[in-house]
Amino acid sequence: MSFECQVCFESYTDHGTEHAPYxxxxxxxxxxxCLERLKEFGSRDEFNCLFCKKRIIFELCHPIYxxxxxxxxxxxxxxxxxxxxIKKEYxxxxxxxxxxxxxxxxxxxxxxxxxxxxxxxxxxxxxxxNNSETxxxxxxxxxxxxxxxxxxxxx
Length: 155
What we know:
Pfam families: zf-RING_UBOX. One of its GO terms (molecular function) is zinc ion binding. The protein is built from three helices and ten strands. The strands form three sheets. The chain has a five-stranded mixed β-sheet. It has a three-stranded antiparallel β-sheet with strand order 2-1-5. Strands 3-4 form a two-stranded antiparallel sheet. The two termini are 58 Å apart. A hairpin with a 6-residue loop joins strand 3 and strand 4 (55-57). The model is unreliable at 98-104 (pLDDT under 50). The chain has two domains: 1-68, Zinc/RING finger domain, C3HC4 (zinc finger) (Herpes Virus-1), CATH 3.30.40; 104-154. It is an alpha+beta fold. It has helices spanning 32-41, 78-96, 111-114, and strands at 21-23, 29-31, 46-48, 55-57, 62-63, 104-109, 123-124, 127-135, 138-145, 149-154.
């Protein structure tokens, strides 16, 4: 990876060298030699930033310490991170759910047929009404069975 000065287009080098990166008070970055040249043409060690025209006092500029040698940097594969995150979240959800190994069926049911399921402990066939949810006029019922779950949207 290469970073370069936007004034002279030279690559940044290590701290203490002529092309070490320096930050001005306005936040723009240039190599040390470019800042020194601007200082020479300015008055009283002050000059205008080439990018934003703000007044810069040379003594307020400071070096930026970069690790330009990427041999010591650990490369991160972002897809590995995402896969690991998803796997961890799935395992957490599985641990917290009632019975994650049972299949979960989804369906729709007419409101006229749903009345018997709204009792929190109703037994209908092989299923026990586990809960019912209501949000802004939308109802849903989850039924807990011995071999599977069912979830119905009421319309």
